[in-house]
């Protein structure tokens, strides 16, 4: 892996917190993701399933984690199964994890090759009262492909008589509250994103292409031990800045336009998520500046609302009020718009159509329970925007913040330029 080693104390702690919530005499299984084919002999780059990584630190295909804390056999209480390597595999694919390496990464003593899995599985299933399976229950999930986890669940069902429970409700909460080690990894991802952005500020000028900007980010990310973008980057100039998930990145940037860049680096599988909007020629027009500062005001005020005890739905209602106020100030809304709005169709939605925040961590849209109030060490984005189709541009600004036990959140991107004069000064230096 490109990233520096992570202390296994994080994974040991994560497993302990998880197993403490299991019913008595239960086993939980976690599988690596598949390697997905493209066609012929081509495949997509492997991405580890975030749950097995969270609980073990193992970042390799065809791995299985088994947690059976009440087993009478101490060797079965925590197990990692690995693909057994050989000289042929090493020659063609490079080295795979050894048993000792996997043990050092995870803090788990019992490491077996996958060839032993079925026998041990049979032994365990004869003893347990409950089997925890790991289904995807994220509120945004739209999975249409059968996963390795899905196939394993089908295999378990063939045994019959098993009492199934779900791991995901436990992880939904647990993963949303970050450990200090996790916060440091997310901060590192943010720092890499900062380096990319500052490079781009000095690179952009009229005539540059959106994909060239994407390439500058990519180069800087890789150079700083990030293996990839945390998500598909949005480099949207001119009217494209109004399209929320524009990813073509194939337009030439023209003098007088703005560029909306929604970009984040990953580090050690942890995501960052930044949006900045900059002028192609290094100077905002007066109109662009007015809208930009309105968005910045909303972002700053929305950030202050993120405190322990606040419910998700209440937070978004308050942000809507702040946005409405700003839209009135810049005359995109008037009193009649406010009089005619409804609870289901508030006036501000004409110019700000998406949510303000989402949890972030091992996934860019990380696990959370929307019915649980915010609490300390939740990490969220704050990303308001104003999109004006009639004027051919949209502006969005986004930072990643950590909720504190009291006071305002800590902005993990507080050192990334965002004020109008900061952006213009760097672009013209």
Question: In terms of topology, how is this protein built?
Answer:
Layout (H helix, E strand, L loop, with lengths): L8 H11 L6 E6 L5 E3 L2 E2 L6 H7 L7 E4 L10 E5 L4 H7 L5 H8 L3 E4 L3 H9 L4 E4 L14 H10 L6 E3 L1 H9 L3 H24 L6 H14 L10 E4 L20 E6 L2 E2 L2 E2 L2 E6 L6 H19 L7 H18 L5 H6 L38 E4 L2 E4 L4 E4 L2 E4 L7 E2 L8 H8 L2
Helix pairs in contact: 1-2, 8-9, 10-11
Notes on the structure:
With 429 residues, this protein is an alpha+beta fold. The chain has two domains: 168 residues, Creatine Amidinohydrolase, Chain A, domain 1 (3-Layer(aba) Sandwich); 248 residues, Creatine Amidinohydrolase. Helix 1 packs across helix 2 and helix 10 packs antiparallel against helix 11.
Please summarize what this structure is.
The chain is an alpha+beta fold and 429 residues long. It has 13 helices and 18 strands. The chain folds into two domains: 9-176, Creatine Amidinohydrolase, Chain A, domain 1 (3-Layer(aba) Sandwich); 180-427, Creatine Amidinohydrolase (Alpha-Beta Complex), CATH 3.90.230.10.
Strand order of the largest sheet: 6-5-4-1-7-8
State the domain count: 2
Q: What is the distance, rounded to the nearest whole angstrom, between the alpha carbons of the first and last residues? A: 36 Å
CATH homologous superfamily caption of the largest domain:
Creatinase/methionine aminopeptidase superfamily
In the CATH hierarchy, the architecture of the largest domain is Alpha-Beta Complex
What share of residues is helical?
25-40%
Task: Give the oligomer, counting copies of the same chain as homo and different chains as hetero.
Answer: single chain
Q: Classify the fold: give the CATH topology of the largest domain.
A: Creatine Amidinohydrolase
Poorly predicted runs: none
Rg calculated over all Cα atoms:
24 Å
Mean pLDDT: 96
How would a crystallographer describe the biggest sheet? 6 strands, mixed
